[in-house]
Amino acid sequence: MKITETIAAISSAAGNSGIGIIRVSGDEAIEIVDKIFKSNKKDKKLRNVDSHTVHYGSIVDGDKTLDQVLVIVMKNPHSYTGEDTVEIDCHGGMLILKKVLDLVIKNGARAAEPGEFTKRAFLNGRIDLSQAEAVMDLINSKNDFALNSSMEQLKGSVSEEIKKIRSDIIYHIAFIESALDDPEHISLDGYNEEISEMLKKNISRIKYLIDTFDNGRIMKEGIKTVILGKPNAGKSSLLNLLLGEERAIVTDIEGTTRDTLEENINFNGLSLKIIDTAGIRNTEDKVEQIGVNKAKDIARDGDLIIFVVDGSREMDENDREILELIQDKQAIVLVNKSDMNTVADIEELKKISGRDVIIFSAKKGEGMDLLEQEIRDMFYSGKVTYNDQVYITNARHKEALEGAYESLMKVRDSVMMGMPEDFYSIDLMDAYTDLGFIIGESVEDDLVNEIFSKFCMGK
Ligand code: GDP
Questions:
Q1: What is the per-residue pLDDT across 227-267, written as a single tens digit (0 to 9) for each?
Q2: DSSP 47
Q3: Tens digit of pLDDT for each residue in 60-87?
């Protein structure tokens, strides 16, 4: 597909800053900027300069100078989009930037849609789809893990994995087709063992990639953490303690429902997305009543539940109900208020919950180390290796992998049931297509190329 329109946008953040950048990309990018750029060197025209050079001058609208700028010229294919690109470094006022952008548009460019520069990089074959998605993830990264994994993905780690599996699959599709076309020269004897070998390897590889998703998501977005406990157990105090840690970085994100608030906390590489169960606290006026139903809903969604027990009081029905609730969840039981006389029956707690408890004091910060260690053990035990592991962190990729997994399992079944070989092709093709969605590759062309390049019959 040939893209002809030249697009432009303010590529730096909205708001005033030291400098602001306007990016112009497309066949006419250089020509358009040439019309409004006046170099300090007489007669210098951008269309005559070398690629990857910087030029000082002014942006002018007729006789009027809008700004003094630096202009960077990058000629295709050596730019982010793969097209001729000009970046105009303006002074970073929103009004200036808007005026310069308007002028660029008046001179022939079109305002870019969100993500359109990256989309062009993809359409021009500079990066594949998973890399394009990695660019977005990179920009939105909230912690080191997210940053590292999206950088790896941008460098092509996910694409490489997918391409390896696809190349195995396409080989077999092509082989079967060739053998069926030309049975005299290509034999399918002993072929079932060969394809079984390939299926075994790749089914387990895909399964492995799918399995990285939960960890990947958790590390990227933070562990969805729900703090439960009856009123006055110390939930808010725990939250404040977590938020108030000096090492904590806090960002507030509006929760998905009106009465929950999500707070992201990163401490020592652990990333918690705490869902503050404000709704549950509202029921405090009803004597020792908790909104168990509400809690159930919220808890169901969580990766981790921190159950805060008030150690200074006897356990009651509320506590038992919460214990019931967390039976099948990843949960940590904190017996809070250890600075006071402990009357809650710790043995009973251990017995009902089936796990160890942490003696804690939100007031004194006692037990924080243990809490942190416990979370680390639950979610990160030896699993955080940034360098040698590919993580799937994108739900779209996971879905595509699941599709491919199903299809390869069907091929395996067909092989085991002794179905004819042309049966395999359909499911192999489905797997190939699904994996192709991840990197955004067109299927038909690939198949044609593969058959002709590897299995040329010499005819
Ligand atoms: P919530 O209703 O579960 O959110 O409980 P809060 O965090 O509001 O705490 C209820 C009361 O218990 C407050 O007066 C807190 O100061 C007190 N509190 C919380 N944690 C501790 C603790 O570890 N020790 C003591 N002594 N008091 C605590």
A1: 888 888 888 888 888 877 533 333 333 333 334 556 777 76
A2: G
A3: 999 999 999 999 999 999 999 999 999 9
Token reading at 192: 């079932």
Q: Give distance in angstroms: CA of 366 to centre of ligand 1.
A: 13
Q: Which residue is associated with the tokens 């942490």?
A: 358
CA 171 / ligand 1 centre spacing (Å): 64
- Kindly give the distance from the C-alpha atom of residue 327 to the centroid of ligand 1, in angstroms, as a whole number: 25
Q: How does strand 249-254 pair with strand 261-267?
A: antiparallel
Contact 55, 67 (CB under 8 A): no
- Separation of alpha carbons 272 and 219, rounded Å: 9
What residue ranges line ligand 1, CB within 6 angstroms? Answer: 229, 231-237, 281, 336-337, 339-340, 361-363
With the C-alpha atoms ordered 376, 378, 379, 383, is the resulting torsion angle positive or negative? positive
Q: In which band, very low, low, confident or very high, does the pLDDT at 3 lie, cut at 50, 70 and 90? A: low
Would you call 38 helix, strand, or coil by DSSP? strand
Euclidean distance between the first and the last CA atom of the chain, given in angstroms as a whole number: 31
Q: How many other β-carbons are positioned within 10 Å of the β-carbon of residue 330?
A: 14
User: Is residue 21 helix, strand or coil?
Assistant: strand
Task: Return the ligand 1 atom nearest residue 360 CA.
Answer: 23
Residue nearest to atom 22 of ligand 1 (CA): 337
Cα distance between residue 37 and residue 67, in whole Å? 10
How far does the centroid of ligand 1 lie from the alpha carbon of residue 234, in Å?
4
**Nearest ligand 1 atom to alpha carbon 240:** 7
